[in-house]
C-alpha cells in the first residue's frame, strides 16, 4: 500500500500479549514497502472471529477476513459434527474511494455522506441480480445434511437482519461462547459481531434466497432511495429450480423491541466446555464483587468547528507514540496522563484527550455503555470477553442492577447499544496489557469514540505478561533509538 497499515484480530484476546493487538495504542504502524510478522496464540479460546485493518479508515475498503478457532479434540462440541462449515462475511460497501470518504467524514458539511452505503456484500460479492454485481455468493448443500454458517458483520455502519428462505437457523455460538441453542427465523447481527448457526437442508431440492437487510433503515423505491439488501443463494446440489418468489420477510427494521428481546434470549450454555474441559458455567458472575464501574456516554461533539465523536465528551486524540511503548519504556511520561478521563461523568464541553484509564488487575469491572446517538452503536473491548448482563432504556441507575441477568449472561467481545438506551457488561480484568475499548462503527471510532484500559500487574515475571517482541517497531519518541528493544523503565510506584 502507499500508506501505513495495521491489522487487528477482532475478538482474539491476545492473552498476556497486547504487543500483537494491532491498534494504534499498542503498535507502531507498518510503513509502506515494509513488512512485519505478528506472532500470537489463540490461548484458551474457541469460536468465530475476524480480522481487519485498524487505522487510516482502511476497513471501509476491505482487507477483512474470517478466523476460526476450533476445539481441541479432547473437548466435545455441544452439537453433532456438521457436514461442512461456511464463512459468511456480510457488510456494507461504499463505491467511493476510502481516502475520499476519510476526508469527507471529517467535514461538517459532508460527514453524513457516510451514513448510507451503496450496497451490502456477502463475502465481497454483490447482491443477486444487482447490475453492478460481478458475482453472487452461493453455498451448495445436500438434502438432509446440516451445515454450520459462521456469520460476521464486517461492515462499518449498519446492523443487519439475516435469514434464509424457508429455512430455520439454530444459534450455537457467538464470539467464542457456546450459547443455549435457540431456533430462529432471522438473526440480528450488529457491526463487529460474529455468530455460528446450524442450518439443515430439509426443504425440496431447489435454490433459496439468503437475505441481509439493514436495521434502522427502510428504502423508499418511489423516491429513488437505495435498496440495501444483501442477497445470496442457498443451492441444493441436485437443484434444477432457480430461486423464485418474494424475498423472505423479516422483522420491521425499526422494531427495537424485537431486537432487544432476541438479544436477551442469547444466553450462555453453562453445561458445555469450550476452550477447556470444565463447563463454561464454572466461570460465572452470580456472586462477584465489583471493584470498578465505568459509565460511558457515546455521542457526537464539535471541537474547533470540526465534527467529532466523544465518550463522556472526550474525543480520543491518537499520539505519535503508541501508548504501550510509552507505558513500557517511560511509564507514559510525555504521552498520556493516567486516569484523567472521566469514567463516571460527562465533561461540560467536548475536548480532545489521550484517554487512558486504570483497570484493577484481577478485579471485576462493570461497564455501562450509554448511547446518546439516534442510531445504533456497538462497542468492542480488546483483550477480553465480557459478560452481557443487561439492556435498558433511558438513563442507567444503580437500581438497574436488579434487572441484570447474572445467571447465564453470554460472554462476547462486541455488544450492541440501542439508540437512547444502555447496555451493561461485566469484565474480569485478568489479562495485563494496554487494551482498546472502542465503537465498532468506523466513523465513530475514527473520529474519537474510543479509550484504552491499562491493566497493570506489578509482578515482573514474564509469565504474567510477555516481553516486547524482538521485531518490535519503534516510532514517535523512540523512532531514533539505536536499540531494537530499549530497556524498560523502572516499575511504576504505587499510586502512580
TrEMBL record:
Task: Spell out the family assignment given in the record's similarity comment.
Answer: Belongs to the multicopper oxidase family.
- The leader peptide range reads none
Instruction: Write out the GO cellular component annotations.
Output: plasma membrane
Q: What is this protein called?
A: Monocopper oxidase-like protein SKU5
Q: Which organism is it from?
A: Nicotiana sylvestris (Wood tobacco)
Superkingdom, natural source? Eukaryota
Name the Gene Ontology molecular function terms of this record: copper ion binding; oxidoreductase activity
Task: Give the fragment's position in the full-length protein.
Answer: 269 to 764 of 764
Domain (Plastocyanin-like) spans 1-73, 88-238, 332-458
Q: Tell me the classification of the organism that encodes this protein.
A: Eukaryota, Viridiplantae, Streptophyta, Embryophyta, Tracheophyta
User: What keywords are annotated for this sequence in UniProt?
Assistant: Glycoprotein, Membrane, Transmembrane, Transmembrane helix
Amino acid at each position: 500500500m502507499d500508506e501505513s497499515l495495521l491489522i487487528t484480530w477482532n475478538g482474539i484476546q491476545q492473552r498476556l500479549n497486547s504487543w500483537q493487538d494491532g491498534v494504534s495504542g499498542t503498535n507502531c504502524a507498518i510503513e509502506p514497502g515494509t513488512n512485519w510478522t505478528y506472532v500470537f496464540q489463540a490461548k484458551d479460546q474457541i469460536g468465530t472471529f475476524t480480522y481487519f485493518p485498524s487505522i487510516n479508515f482502511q476497513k471501509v475498503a476491505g482487507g477483512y477476513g474470517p478466523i476460526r478457532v476450533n476445539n481441541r479434540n479432547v473437548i466435545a462440541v455441544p452439537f453433532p459434527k456438521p457436514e461442512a462449515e461456511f464463512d459468511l462475511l456480510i457488510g456494507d460497501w461504499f463505491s467511493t474511494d476510502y481516502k475520499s470518504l476519510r476526508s469527507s467524514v471529517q467535514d461538517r458539511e459532508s460527514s453524513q455522506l457516510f451514513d448510507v452505503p451503496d450496497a451490502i456484500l456477502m463475502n465481497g460479492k454483490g447482491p443477486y441480480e444487482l447490475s453492478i454485481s460481478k458475482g453472487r455468493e452461493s453455498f451448495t448443500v445436500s438434502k438432509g445434511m446440516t451445515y454450520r454458517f459462521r456469520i460476521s458483520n464486517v461492515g462499518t455502519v449498519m446492523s443487519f437482519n439475516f435469514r434464509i428462505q424457508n429455512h430455520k437457523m439454530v444459534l450455537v455460538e457467538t464470539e467464542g461462547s457456546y450459547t443455549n441453542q435457540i431456533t430462529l427465523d432471522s438473526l440480528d447481527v450488529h457491526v463487529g459481531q460474529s455468530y455460528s448457526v446450524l442450518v439443515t437442508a430439509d426443504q425440496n431440492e431447489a435454490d433459496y434466497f439468503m437475505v441481509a437487510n439493514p436495521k434502522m433503515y427502510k428504502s423508499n423505491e418511489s423516491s429513488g432511495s437505495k435498496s440495501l439488501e444483501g442477497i445470496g443463494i442457498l443451492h441444493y446440489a441436485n437443484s434444477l429450480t432457480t430461486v423464485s418468489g418474494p424475498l423472505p420477510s423479516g422483522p420491521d427494521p425499526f422494531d427495537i423491541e424485537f431486537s432487544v428481546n432476541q438479544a436477551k434470549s442469547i444466553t450462555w450454555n453453562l453445561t458445555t466446555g469450550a476452550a477447556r474441559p470444565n463447563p463454561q458455567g464454572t466461570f460465572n458472575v452470580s456472586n462477584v464483587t465489583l471493584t470498578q464501574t465505568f459509565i460511558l456516554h457515546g455521542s457526537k461533539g464539535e471541537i474547533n468547528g470540526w465534527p467529532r465523536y466523544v465518550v463522556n465528551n472526550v474525543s480520543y486524540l491518537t499520539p505519535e507514540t503508541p501508548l504501550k511503548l510509552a507505558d513500557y519504556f517511560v511509564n507514559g511520561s510525555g504521552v498520556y496522563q493516567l486516569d484523567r478521563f472521566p469514567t463516571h461523568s460527562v465533561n461540560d464541553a467536548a475536548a480532545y484527550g489521550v484517554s487512558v484509564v486504570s483497570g484493577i488487575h484481577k478485579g471485576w469491572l462493570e461497564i455501562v455503555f450509554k448511547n446518546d446517538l439516534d442510531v445504533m452503536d456497538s462497542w468492542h473491548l480488546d483483550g477480553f470477553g465480557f459478560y452481557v448482563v443487561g439492556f435498558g432504556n433511558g438513563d442507567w441507575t444503580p437500581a438497574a442492577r436488579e434487572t441484570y441477568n447474572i445467571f447465564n449472561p453470554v460472554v462476547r467481545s462486541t455488544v450492541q447499544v440501542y439508540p437512547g438506551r444502555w447496555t451493561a457488561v461485566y469484565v474480569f480484568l485478568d489479562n495485563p496489557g494496554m487494551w482498546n475499548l472502542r465503537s465498532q462503527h468506523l466513523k465513530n471510532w475514527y473520529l474519537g469514540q474510543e479509550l484504552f484500559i491499562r491493566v497493570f500487574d506489578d509482578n515482573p515475571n514474564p509469565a504474567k505478561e510477555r516481553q516486547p517482541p524482538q521485531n518490535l517497531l519503534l516510532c514517535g519518541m523512540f523512532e531514533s533509538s539505536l536499540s531494537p528493544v530499549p530497556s524498560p523503565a523502572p516499575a511504576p510506584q504505587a499510586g502512580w
